[in-house]
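Title: Comparing notes on inverse folding

I've been comparing how different people in this forum approach sequence design from structure. To keep things fair, I'm posting one structure and asking everyone to reply with a full sequence. Here's the target:
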């Protein structure tokens, strides 16, 4: 039964990853734009960004983990070194999302100015490329 579902698990996982990475990159670009506004003008824009995060990026992150772990379990990859390296990058992206979401909440609550994370967008792209290569090539 799992073999019959495998292509659907992969398709759902990849779709979730596309939304996750798109959401993370959008967050970074939007935060960059918002950070150029005075702090007193940021709250409304941050609230809209928070709604986007709750509707798109966070569910995509959860689905990425659920379907990714389902694939790893069903294929017996949990002890594979390539998967452990891939998971390190996935954890890093998850941590970035958690940090950014927390900062957005903090800035909305306290009125503090949001700041961009220099190089975060490049880090997201590099992590995603590394994850994709590891997932397709499975080198180690």
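Reply #1:
Here's my take.
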């Amino acid at each position: 039964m799992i073999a019959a579902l495998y292509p659907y698990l992969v398709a759902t996982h990849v779709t979730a990853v596309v939304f996750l990475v798109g959401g993370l990159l959008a967050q970074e670009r939007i935060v960059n734009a918002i950070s150029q506004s005075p702090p007193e003008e940021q709250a409304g824009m941050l609230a809209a960004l928070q709604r986007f995060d709750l509707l798109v990026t966070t569910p995509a992150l959860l689905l990425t983990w659920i379907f990714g772990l389902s694939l790893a379990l069903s294929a017996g990859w949990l002890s594979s070194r390539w998967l452990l390296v891939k998971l390190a990058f996935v954890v890093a992206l998850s941590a970035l999302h958690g940090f950014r979401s927390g900062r957005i909440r903090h800035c909305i609550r306290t009125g503090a100015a949001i700041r961009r994370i220099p190089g975060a967008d490049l880090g997201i792209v590099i992590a995603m490329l590394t994850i994709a290569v590891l997932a397709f090539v499975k080198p180690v």
